[in-house]
Every structure is written in structure tokens, then in C-alpha cells.
Protein: Surface polysaccharide O-acyltransferase, integral membrane enzyme
Amino acid sequence: MSSQAPAPRIPVPAAAARMPKAVDRVQVTRGLACLLLVLFHVVGGKADDGLRIADASLGRQILDVLLYVRMPLFAFISGYVYTLKPLDPARPGPFLQGKLRRLALPLLTATTIFYLTALARAPQPPADAVLGLLHAYVFSYEIYWFLQAMLLIFLLLPLLERFLLHSAAGCAAAVLAGFLLTVPAEPIDFLSINGAAFLAPFFFIGIAARRFIGTLSPTWTLALLAVLIVAFALHIHNVATLPPHMGARRGTWLSLLIGGITPLLLVAHVPRIALLARIGHASFAIFLFHIFFIVAMRMLLRAIGIEDFAIHLLAGLAAAIAGPMLLETLLAKGKATRRLFLGLR
Structure:
């Protein structure tokens, strides 16, 4: 038995003990992605949707410019965060079960609620309604194509991890393969295969960013920023000069450059804004439910005679962010609701 006295405890300065934890740039980037997604759905993707702004308007062109950023940001972050708890290629079962619970259950629940809500507004014969719901479960349906596509990518990960994603060259090959499949896969909306092909390159870039790229040096940051500025300039020119919606298409080299470089730079250098990080923490609930709050706020404002564009825009954004965050808090309290709606244990 040792007779040594225990080492003295080093006192921690009170200021250091009170020092807040640094805001996570990944969550800030995710929060920014949420804002871009919500903005798109508040304004509307078409001239006869949302706030009904014309296809040739500046606002519509801005939304088209952001097409190469919105969903690629989510896909990149999914790949980046996946590397924190990757699957074991020799034992992929637990990982896949977790993803099915985390994504498939909320996907089915949210799809059903969305479909039934739409059905209440535009009734159909019972047989057609049932067939429509079944179709929504297995084909791209409204905003939920993203979850179908990501689930498909996760289901392919055991093979990809075994043969490709363990090396930088393999990740590059996966990025290139997904990119080259984007245009050919566009007509295939079964299980959102088209969406999976579109998102896959950015998901793999997210994996590579954490596994093989690491911290960006100042030289690399400046080089990537220069490429991004040129790519955005060309993209803006296309959107401004081509017919509506033709200047922002999936599967172009500009989409790959912008969608791949933007999140790399954001994760490395975005300002640590606590509010955006908080929004990022609630990104899953915001994605699932923001559309319900957007529609409800729009109906409320119109019911009381408010048609001002700015009020609709700001109120819609606020409702679409705050509403799902509050709903997530409520749903997390019940065992059944947290599993069915949020995919949590």
C-alpha cells in the first residue's frame, strides 16, 4: 500500500469554469441550411405556389441561385456527422436498424399526416385515396423525398464502406459516380432514387471532409473561395439569362462545385452564431413539420386580411422555425410520440 499523499487538485479559475462551450460550426451550418429551406417553402417553388411571385422576378432568381446550396448543405452535413459514429462494415445491422428507426418511422408518420391533410382539402374516392397514400410511401412525395433519398444512401453504406469510403481515392470515385448518375437517374422517382443520386456526391464530400481533408489551411481556403466565387458568378449568369428554372439544374459541374465547396468553407469558417446553432439542433423537426406551420400562418394572415409580402415572409419564417422547435419539445415528452414522430428511442 502506497504512503504517498494524493496529488493536489489544481484550482480552476472561476472565469474559466463559467466560460460557455464554443458554438459548433456544424450546427450553425445546419441552422443556415434550415433557414434556406424554410425560405424556399415560404416563398414557394413556383409562380402559383406560396407567396406567388413571378418566375421572372428577382426573388425567384435568388431562390434558383440557392438551389445549388440548400439540399447539398444537408447532405454534406449528414456525411460529415456520420463519420463521428460510422457503421462497422463487419456488423452493419445495428447501424441500419438505428437509421430505419430514426428516418423511416418519422418519414411514414409525416408523409401520412401531410397526405391526409391534403386529402381533407381535396377529397378523393376511397380507393384512389388509399392508392395515393401507398404511392406516397414508395415514390418521391413532396418535401419528404429527401428522407427517402438519405435512407437509400444509408442502406448502401455497408457496401460503400467496405469497398470505397475507406480511402480518399475511393471517396473521390464515389463522388464522381454519384455525380455522373444524377442526370440519368432524374426520371426514377421510385424510393427517390433520383434524389439519392443528386445528394450522394455531397454526402461523400462530407465524409471525405472529416476523414481526409481536415482543417483547411489559409492557402486552401483562399483557393476554394476563388473557385466558388467564379462558379457562383457563372451560375448567377445562367439563372439571369436562361428561361425560368433552366439556369439551375441538377447534375451540372457548377452544381457540384458550389454544393461541394460551400459547406466545406462554412463548416471551417462560418461565424459561431448561437441562434443558428440552436436552429440546427432542431433541424430534423424543422424539416419534418415546417410546411404545416407555413401553411397555417399563411391562412391565418389571409383570414385577417393581411396580404403584405414582407409580413407574410417574416411571419412565415418565424412560424416555420419556432413552431417545429416547440412541437419537438412536446413530442419528445411521450415515449410513443418521440419514436413515431422523431425517430428517437
